[in-house]
């Protein structure tokens, strides 16, 4: 079996298991009370099942087990605790989110659980080794700094994904695009010999892409089920882990680094640009209002687009397009070896921004929706 076919099998397994197990969750979740009622914080109009993160978690485990049995991934699992570290950290992260889906936890309790997950990840060996200062030198991280940055990256990315999970299909689609771009990028690094075939990052990106694709048919508008905090935090943990195992392990300069990663944190900023920008705006907004950082509001990017008159589906598609453009800006220079290739994507990004501003109340096959729908 060729390498490409083995990767396709793992991707398909992650998607199929997630897709099928979501049907199980839709039957079990209501019996556990995992149903989200409409309220002033949400935009959905009817009670909707949550807890889809459980299907994603099962798909993640199934895909990793399958990969461990395929010869193409032997080096990833042989003599390394990194795969185990991600499974342990992902289990803790998913559990924190799942508990919050059933019984709302306080913000400090959720952050404490995320810190625990990130700490376990670091203790068991998944950390950054290097940190490249933008337009500067490469910094070799001490054990203390590596652990601190690992935990911070996990918390930031996990909460970024969680915050954009406010519209049907938005988080799953955004992360799918990001994971796909990251998989292609890390594959180029492997082909160039800058990371070894034993690196866990490409496999994590592949599995993350698979579970997102498997969940999207159930979650796209109108959603039959939400992923909940369990799914959003899980996706954040997987993306942070992939980032660290690839971006934090490369010493050599590589074509596209100026756009894609001078430092590991630049990767999620580019390919997860939408959620991270949303986090920054939310923190600034709540600080200005002298509110707690965890205070819920309806001023996130997707809420604003809805108020501007874009429908639910179009808002999601526009934000997916923006994520794809940011990923393209990151990925194309690496694949082509030319920074000039970034220009079309930059121009397209400006066009989308103008579309947001100049056509705020135009519909494409949807009813006029001047305000967020409430019940």
Question: How would you portray this structure in words?
Answer:
This protein is mainly alpha-helical and 375 residues long. The protein has one domain (3-276). Helices cover 66% and strands 3% of the residues. The chain is built from 15 helices and four strands. It has helices at 3-32, 53-68, 74-77, 82-102, 107-123, 143-164, 170-191, 201-219, 228-247, 257-260, 266-271, 273-288, 301-308, 312-336, 342-358, and strands spanning 35-36, 48-49, 130-132, 138-140. It has a two-stranded antiparallel sheet. Strands 3-4 form a two-stranded antiparallel ribbon. It is globular and about 50 Å long.
- Secondary-structure-based class equals mainly alpha
Distance between the termini: 54 Å
- Count up the helices: 15
How much helical structure, as a percent, in the residues? 55-70%
Please tell me what the overall shape is.
Answer: globular
Indicate the low-confidence ranges by residue numbers.
254-265, 360-375
- Give the beta-strand count: 4
Residue-averaged pLDDT, rounded?
Answer: 78
SSE string: HEEHHHHEEHHHHHHHHHH
Tally of individual domains:
1
Question: For the CA atoms, what is the radius of gyration?
Answer: 20 Å
Spatial order of the strands forming the largest sheet: 1-2
Estimate what percentage of residues fall within beta strands: under 5%
The major sheet is characterized as: 2 strands, antiparallel
């Amino acid at each position: 079996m060729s390498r490409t076919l083995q990767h396709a099998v793992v991707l398909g397994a992650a998607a199929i298991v997630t897709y099928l197990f979501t049907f199980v969750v839709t039957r079990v979740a209501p019996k556990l009370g995992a149903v989200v009622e409409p309220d002033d914080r949400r935009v959905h109009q009817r009670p909707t099942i949550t807890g889809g993160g459980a299907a994603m978690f099962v798909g993640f485990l199934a895909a990793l087990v399958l990969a461990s049995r395929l010869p193409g991934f032997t080096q990833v699992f042989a003599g390394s605790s990194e795969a185990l570290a991600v499974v342990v950290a992902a289990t803790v992260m998913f559990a924190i989110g799942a508990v919050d889906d059933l019984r709302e936890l306080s913000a400090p309790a959720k952050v404490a659980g995320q810190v625990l997950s990130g700490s376990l990840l670091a203790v068991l060996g998944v950390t950054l080794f290097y940190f490249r200062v933008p337009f500067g030198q490469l910094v070799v991280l001490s054990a203390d700094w590596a652990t601190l940055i690992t935990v911070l990256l996990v918390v930031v990315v996990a909460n970024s994904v969680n915050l954009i999970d406010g519209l049907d299909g938005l988080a799953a689609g955004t992360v799918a695009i990001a994971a796909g771009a990251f998989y292609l990028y890390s594959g180029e690094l492997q082909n160039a010999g800058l990371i070894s075939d034993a690196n866990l990052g490409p496999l994590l990106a592949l599995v993350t892409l698979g579970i997102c694709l498997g969940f999207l048919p159930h979650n796209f508008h109108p959603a039959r089920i939400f992923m909940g905090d369990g799914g959003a935090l899980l996706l954040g943990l997987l993306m942070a882990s992939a980032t660290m195992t690839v971006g934090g392990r490369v010493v050599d300069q590589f074509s596209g680094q100026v756009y894609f990663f001078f430092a590991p944190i630049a990767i999620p900023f580019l390919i997860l640009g939408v959620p991270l920008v949303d986090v920054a705006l939310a923190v600034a907004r709540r600080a200005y209002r002298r509110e707690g950082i965890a205070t819920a509001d309806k001023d996130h990017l997707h809420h604003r687009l809805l108020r501007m008159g874009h429908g639910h589906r179009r808002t999601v598609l526009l934000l997916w397009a923006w994520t794809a453009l940011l990923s393209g800006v990151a990925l194309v220079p690496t694949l082509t070896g030319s920074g000039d290739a970034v220009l079309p994507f930059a121009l397209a990004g400006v066009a989308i921004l103008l579309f947001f501003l100049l056509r705020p109340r135009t519909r494409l096959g949807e009813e006029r929706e001047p305000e967020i729908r409430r019940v």
